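Posting this for the archive.
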Amino acid sequence: MPRGGHAASGPAPDPDALRRERPGDKATWTTLPAEGRAGDPPEWPLLDPEGREWELWAELWAMPQAVMWERLGQRYEVALYVRMLARAEQPKSSIELQKVVRQYLDSLGLSTQGMLRHRWRLSAAAPAEPAPKSSGVKAPAKRSSRDRFKVIDGDLGE
């Protein structure tokens, strides 16, 4: 019997791994633009979109992962995810529907695990502005684990 159980078994690939000479690491990592995909979302491919679906559709096609979806022609997969997500958001939606949405998250690279499995990473965003220096007020010292212990003075029955 093959080892591993299923295609996604084992840890996800790590772009910062120390050993890079493994045969399975020959694939390159794709860097996605942190600012997301530019332009309007593609035309909705399914029938009869609902209001919430339009909102999700536009939001998703502005994400960095949308660059790859466009390259791979995944309009239908994204539209089905949008439809399932809109239904899963409803009160009393089924657990099975929520599981399907979770699977779409991974397969479309919307979760951290999905990004790693696809070997996608985000480009470095513009450096954040340095935080202003404090006005001289000292932050409280961190407590150590020893500070949580109390000494109980008493007779131990001797």
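The mean pLDDT is 80. The CA atoms of residues 84 and 90 lie 10 Å apart.
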